[in-house]
Design goal:
alpha/beta, D-Maltodextrin-Binding Protein, domain 2, 2 domains, 8-stranded mixed sheet, two-stranded parallel ribbon, 42% helix
Length: 329
């Protein structure tokens, strides 16, 4: 009877201990991931994040057997997909693929349902992309200096096409004209292809875009590149000077792709995710996806966190100093 009572007393305690031990094991990342991990992509399928992430996912599957899935959640300047991850359980099974919009939208949309610094745990900055300042092939200016001189002489006359207010094709343009004390008119499009078609036709006169989106047009003689947006020339086109070296000191912009989890995701899980993607970064099959302008990075979580904080502050300062109106004003 005593043994039976002891067993009855101990079983619930042992069960509780087992549950606690299981929770600790899971939070330490020992068996993580035990099921597929969903990457929320706040863009439509087929965009650069789709192209970049699939080879990483395949490499991880082949090396570890772990499955990652893409869930495309575009809309509202990337904030819909991003918000879905901020509100997800911090268990490592829902993460987000972020871009410069992640550090730009907080300054443009002050009522976001998340804080881009406090509500996320950075995993890794996977890659950067140098962009190009481009004009129609029929444009009279052939260098950044000539373009800036024209903009100074004709304030507000030139139309700059962007893919939306506060987007990565808008704020870097605001930054350029802030540094050069010039003024253009920003025209915000709902679709990326249309803004480029209107550039070719001359309806708008200037924009910034990735190498992948414009090199075909440049080679076909429909567009002309004036300069590279990064502070260093790119190996894909070493003859093309940077915007900075053409008389705009301090100008530097690159697009990027990085991964983040919800805040309070256990550090062991963050580190495991980082290790999986950094190992995939070294896979030759992943390197094959590189396109002109791509720069592979593979950062630590802390390096990525510092970049997010720095760039969030940079764009907030720009909007404040230019007096640009944000949503709701």
């Amino acid at each position: 009877m005593r043994l039976l009572k002891l067993a009855i007393f101990l079983c619930p305690a042992l069960a509780a201990c087992s549950v606690t031990a299981l929770a600790l094991a899971q939070s330490s990342g020992d068996d993580y991931p035990a099921k597929p991990v969903t990457i929320a992509v706040p863009f439509a399928a087929g965009a650069s994040h789709d192209r970049m992430l699939r080879p990483y996912m395949q490499s991880i599957l082949e090396s570890t057997g772990k499955i990652f899935l893409l869930a495309f959640k575009p809309g509202a300047g990337t904030t819909i997909g991003t918000a879905s991850v901020a509100q997800a359980a911090p268990d490592g099974y829902t993460i987000v693929s972020a871009s410069p919009a992640f550090v730009m939208t907080p300054s443009v949309y002050p009522d976001l349902p998340y804080d881009n610094v406090k509500d996320f745990a950075p995993i890794s900055l996977l890659s950067e992309q140098a962009w190009l300042l481009v004009v129609p092939a029929s444009s009279p200016y052939k260098t950044v200096s000539e373009y800036i001189a024209y903009a100074k002489a004709h304030p507000g006359e030139l139309n700059w096409s962007s893919s939306g207010k506060g987007s990565a094709t808008h704020l870097p343009g605001e930054f350029l004209h802030y540094l050069t004390k010039t003024k253009v008119t920003f025209v915000h499009y709902k679709t990326g292809p249309q803004r480029l078609l209107d550039l070719i036709s001359g309806r708008v006169q200037v924009t910034m875009a990735s190498f992948a989106n414009v090199m075909g047009h440049i080679k076909a003689g429909r567009m002309r590149a004036l300069g590279v947006t990064t502070d260093k020339r790119v190996s894909d086109w070493p003859e093309m000077p940077t915007i900075e070296e053409q008389g705009v000191p301090g100008y530097n912009f690159s697009s990027w792709i990085g991964l983040l989890a919800p805040a309070r995701t256990p550090p062991a899980i963050i580190n495991k995710l980082n290790a999986m993607f950094v190992n995939a970064y070294n896979d030759p099959n992943v390197r094959k996806i590189r396109e002109a302008g791509d720069i592979f990075v593979g950062s630590t979580p802390e390096e990525f966190r510092r970049r997010i904080v720095t760039e969030t502050d940079q764009w907030r300062k720009l909007i404040k100093e230019t007096g640009m109106k944000v949503e709701g004003q």
